Fold these 2 entries.
Entry 1:
Amino acid sequence: MLLITREMPPEVLARAQAEHEVRELRLQGRFEPRHILDNIAGVNAILCIPADKFDAALINALPDAVKVIGTFSVGLEHIDLDAAAARGIKICHTPDVLTTATAELSLTLMLMAARRAGEGERILRAGQWPGLAPTFHLGRGVSGKTLGILGMGRIGRALAQMARGLNMQVHYRNRTRLAPELEQGAIYHEDDASFLAALDFLSINAPGGKETFHWLNAARIALLKPGAIIVNTGRGTTIDDDALIAALRTGHIAAAGLDVFANEPEIPPGYLALENAVLLPHIGSATIEARNAMGFLALDGIKAALA
Ligand code: DGY
């Protein structure tokens, strides 16, 4: 039996039901281990999402019958991979198929933040638009500017390609330097200081987890040019929210576009009061095309693991 924690796109659910006996939990909001443990009888495969934290305690409490955990995400930081390996539980995830959708959302946030689009819409809806004027609601252009990408994996590289089309110069920071055919002229930095000092825009496209926890802290924010713009579609944990909120308040950071938060669905209240923060509800991969492809890929992985 396949235990599915959240509501799936209809086509994905239909295929799951054709291939497995399915128990759907349709959980919403905060996840608790008991949601799994209370419903685990007869289950040999689980399909979860990043909000469902499979830590060592939960993995160790799963019955031996559970052979595979598939996650409806490319990110894996919510699953204790060592604990799963020790139990012989296979893990599958959904890389590649959400690359374009997530890169498109990074670009959306970058343009929204640069052109103050969220704030402009709020003014208009509130009936406070005074009408067209040469000085009204000025933003910043992106053409000719530098974009720094933290994490030059598939999504970072797709964003780089889009940014080149906007006449931006791409810089990047990555665990290792890419081969020239992947780099496509992007400028690699071996250290954070030279990277951050070069940027007009910073996009975080790196995975979450311990390695990137609070990477963007007050010290690194201070290394960015005054007026820099920050975008994050990776994981909320990569940003020290107090430090970013303080920099958005002073204007050292002109604007931020955030799709991910450390403690979703909670949003640090400091952001909500800031007009220069564009805030989206973790919709990086939320296109019909990507979400169906993610579901199908997860089901492929589950089927292969059970075979
Ligand atoms: C992922 O795949 O890790 C995304 O954050 C979920 O859409």
Note: The chain has a mean pLDDT of 98.
Entry 2:
Amino acid sequence: MDEIKRIGILTSGGDCAGLNAAIRAVVHRAVNTYDWEVLGICQATHGLMMRPPQAINLTPDKVNTYLTAGGTFLGTTNKGDPFAFPMPDGSLRDRSQEIIEGYHSLGLDALIGIGGDGSLAILQRLAGQGGLKLVGIPKTIDNDVGVTEMSIGFDTAVGIATEALDRLHFTAASHSRVMILEVMGRDAGHIAITAGIAGGADVILIPEIPYSIEGICRTIKQHQEQGKNYCLVVVAEAVRTEAGATVSSSKGLEQCRLGGIGQYLAEQICGRIGAETRVTVLGHTQRGGTPSYLDRLLGSTFGVAAVDLIAEGKFDHVVTWQNRRVVSVPISEAIAGYAAVNPNGVLVKTARGLGIYLGD
Ligand code: F6P
């Protein structure tokens, strides 16, 4: 195996809490244990596309203060597939070779890419084409990377959604209202069901389980009959209308931007049973703020393990969390399919056991 002297690290895709903990761990392990140099690539693969490539030398003293900081101090992007990069004139251009040249011009011997399934797929394709030695770390608040029980960012996002529910309880009760909380999660309902159970929701709607407006209204009425004057509804952004339409605000945009299902539900509920209904859309607050202890822990664990994989010469793998252990898995497996909420799994069973309406 070629000797490793200098590695790169980049964050790609939407930001989330815990990314800086992972970068910090990579730097500590690489510099202190292996005596390697670490370059932080700015703005994901865009930094490698620029000339000169945008990268900063990272040392333990420079990264220490970032442990508790949200976001990613390296910057990131979830736009601009390098294989079909949108140019100012509206055309799409394959700019993958520029990234590969950028990697080699920095003298990198390996690269750690922190990303969700989309970013990991792009990085793997670049690695195959250009001989990049790649190791992946999974991050996404959506927690839909199937091979790992937990991705960096999920726990903090769930904590924020749970806290929002805690706050909504009191104002909902004070005004006898139905409160709808719309959360992120892309095509999966992990944030919604986890926060919904932890935050005491009465109704949890996730894309994996069909629902009916009639079923929601029946639940609200049952609560009223039992003396509970308010109701908390959590809905994942990808839940469709009863007729099966996606609710989004993506007209004219490059990517589908989900959002608006909460407002749709409010109108349906109010129209059907006259309940006073309000909507809270949590949006990007779920990605921001101080990382939870678990995201710092996961980021630190993954960072150290990713560097160790490079030292072992085990490339094209991603580190994952399975049964309280870090397990490395081929990237191809990690991107093969996304993990939806299991309709027969423990969380759905728990929610139903608590009398929460999840669908019919
Ligand atoms: O994938 C992470 C995520 O936060 C999704 O939950 C959400 O749908 C999307 O990114 C939002 O993306 P953007 O930051 O482009 O609005």
Note: The first helix runs from residue 19 to 33.
